Sequence to fold (1012 residues):
Amino acid sequence: MYIAHHQVPAGDTAQPKVWLENVSKQYGSVTALQPSDLKVRSGEFLTILGPSGSGKSTVLNLIAGMTNPTAGRVWIDGRDCTNVPPSKRGLGMVFQNYALMPHMSVFENVAFPLRVRRVTEAEIKRRVGEALELVRLPSVAGRKPAELSGGQQQRISIARCLVYNPAIILMDEPLGALDKKLREEMQLELKRLHVELKVTALYVTHDQEEALTMSDRIVLFNGGRIEQAGTPHELYFRPRTLFSAKFLGDSNVLSGKLQGRAQDGLVETPVGLLRSSNGNEHVGDGASVHLMVRPENVLLLPPDNKHEYANGLEAMVVDTISFGGVIKTFARLSDGSTMTVQELTRARRQAFDRGARVRLAWQAEDMLLLPAA
Amino acid sequence: MVDRETTKNSRLDFTRRQFLTTAAGAATAAVAGPLVVTPGKAQASAVVRVADDGGTLSKARERLFFKPFMERTGIEVQVHVGQHDLSKMKAMAQTDNLEYDMVLASGSIAAAATKSGLLAEIDKSKLDLSNYMVEEWNQPTWIAWQYYTAGLTYNTDTVAEDKVPRSWVDYWDSEKFPGRRGFRTSPYETLEQALLADGVPITDLYPIDMDRAFASLDKIKDKVNVWVAETSQTVQLLQQNELDFCVSYSGRVEQARANGIPVGFVYDSAISSPTAIWVMKGTPNYDASLKLMQWFLTGEPGVAWFTEFPGNGPTDRKTFEALPDDIKAKLPSFDNPSAVWVDVDWWADNLEAATVRYKTWLLS
Amino acid sequence: MYFILPLLIYMAAVFLLPLLFVLFTSVVSETSGQLTLEFFERFFTHGLYLRVLKTTLEISLIGTALTLLIAYPIAYYLAKQTPKRRSYLTLLILLPFYTSILVKAFAFMVVLGYNGVVNDAIRLVLGEDFVLPLLFNRFGVMIGVVHDMVPFMVFPIVINLLAQNSSIHKAAEIMGATRTRIFWSIIFPLSLPAVAAGSLLVIIRLMGQFVTPALLGGRTDIMMSNLISFHIKDALDWNMAAAVSIVLLLLSCLILLALTRVRGAQLFGEQPRHG
Fold:
């Protein structure tokens, strides 16, 4: 899995492109979004990630102006847009179903926002040509959308946004209708366009892999509120909650009780004493906690191996599955629960048969301390 | 499938039985001689299927004519309510599938159907026509049992009595008799009105001089407010105060008046046409049909019928004489020289040409 | 394909056979039994038939255009309602279907007649002498036929509007388009196939109309069907009736063909998607 490591272009001090200032949304008695504060920085690629019903679509609709907030204000480019209609917000949007006008040619689709803005014909011709060049489809201008593949159609709809330089491009699961291979291609394409043009993008998805690959920052939503916000790296390696840990990547979770102070990170679990070197501000001394370790951080060792790792547990191999580049081994612990170990496939890797006794080991820094729900 | 078999069988049975009773009836008739409708047990299973056009008048005919006839003779009358225009009769004849034996309808239809060879000859030796008043309407294939009258109808609320056109000449004079005028979209009766308005004597109406009739119509064409297609609209338009004058039928107008609708009818130079009764060619119920025909021509229900529906007149002298005086007063008398009697034969020959010309004229 | 066989047999029996009979009757004289084109010749040489043909086309075309003008806003409004409200309103749209033309003609008199609501109001404002002739002329015909035909136009358009991809409208809005622009450059062009379908339904029905024009029209509002009815029922001239019918049928086919072409052009090249 590729995890983006981009320089965040501007700090918190610069004026945000979009600022949802303590915004909330109620539909009757149903809370779609609890009071939340969210800033999209200029030039960044921000992903709103979350399962369906988590409030991410509400956030998108609030920014686009398709719905008004129950409380709070919506700022775009420093302008209070809370009551401004969608057509006056100067945004761009890419839809999952492309939303191209089927009766217009590709050229006319891309030209549409320019015609709305009464741009001269010569200028339209030039800018549409440029936009089509940018999405690498310069030769399809005369065709109807239905004559293009799904991936091509989505490129056109991106070109249709790029052509008028909106303040921010909103993308609502834009790759959801494409197959896996095309999706991966398009992810890189979108990333390239973002890096090249330095546009501000707000990307909505439920696909954690997509979020980790493309984003400068991810805002994870859960149950109508922000669960955690941060760089992909932070969300992956330093999840603050069990939900974050489980939603992004694979995880092994154990439960236990802190022995002594939280900062010592010593936890008594049914399978033995485990050690974490990561504190958590949300965890108090002596509290019940969850412990999480990523499968790729666990080592699979022979049972008698003397090792230097802070954590080590006896286990029995239950199953081994190869995924080509990686192998996953499922091992049963003494309390009957299962841990997953992920290794890179190597030709001379030591194999453990089903039923073999093994030792699982990992560093204290790879063991995360999470508050019990 | 089962149903169809059953029907088929019963129909076979029916025709066979029909044939036998018809033969028996004929034998009885030959012995008993013609003339009167007599009670007869022999015809207990005989049937006449009559086409009637539906509506309130049909209901009344059922009550006044058909029921007493069935009680008197034992002959069953099956009424086929609905449209029975020429095309239907022609189609029945073409497919050799008669749905009814007798028809009560306008004489012009009877004349046209005769020309198309659809009607049976009437055996006059089996009918008593000794008091029949109109020789022209005693035809080989049809006989008029009553007549109906078209004439100027007016709104009594909007037209003062001295401003009512009393003749067709008056009706054509929109200066002396101002008002919103209605004309019909059919040339039938309209051409007669046009000639009378142009001064043609009643005796010289036929054969109709179409050129003269249309020249006369030209004079009134632009003064017409509504060209009325449906007969039901004629009185309705007066009632709704859409028109001051229209052409309608005495029977309809008298009924409307009885219902309190403010309309009046000009009987002078009104134009009367026969309502005929006839028998379809190929009927299996010929004799029973003639008995019903006799019942309509001279039967006792006539007096009740013409009293209940004033405006229509009988063709039988005895029936006419038996009518109350106030009813008689509303009928064009055969002795009245101002009454106009339609020549249905002329219409049977010329309806298509006259209509095509009339519609062409309407469009120009 | 065998499952449509019963339908084919049924159509052959109740549609094709009678049609062939009509065709036969239009070219074989009933009196002489000879093959002849005299009835078509009469059609094209006698002034009546061509004039009535012109009237029929005028009433059908103008009637269809007016129906569209009235029906489109209704359809647009219906498409914007909640499903529940829409089904109630649909019942209202269907009312003309359940009302006999004779009753409607009477009702129109109450509203549009000499002493109708409209003319009473006009007299009240402008004085006793002012009367607008709203019935028994071409205007009356149009009132009547539009009233008859609106449902046929409304439903195809409502279905189309409901089926339009709403994210296209949303996208246009976000791109800055006004509601007017969204309607004229997206919603309306996308609804053209339904407009064509509705117009086809209406125009073909109007070509066969005759009761409404006869009841509400003026002297010159004679339809082809009037002539067919007259030749069949009153004149018993089935040859001529058949010839008029065939001309009317061919004309309807031509219009069908023309409108299908419009629809074909509006198919937006929607071949099966590849990709």
Observations:
- Chain A touches chain C at residues 64, 66, 85-93, 95, 97, 99-103, 112-113, 116-117, 144, 146-153, 157, 160, 164, 170, 182 (CB under 8 Å).
- The longest strand of chain A covers residues 311-322.
- Residues 289 and 372 of chain A are 5 Å apart (CA to CA).
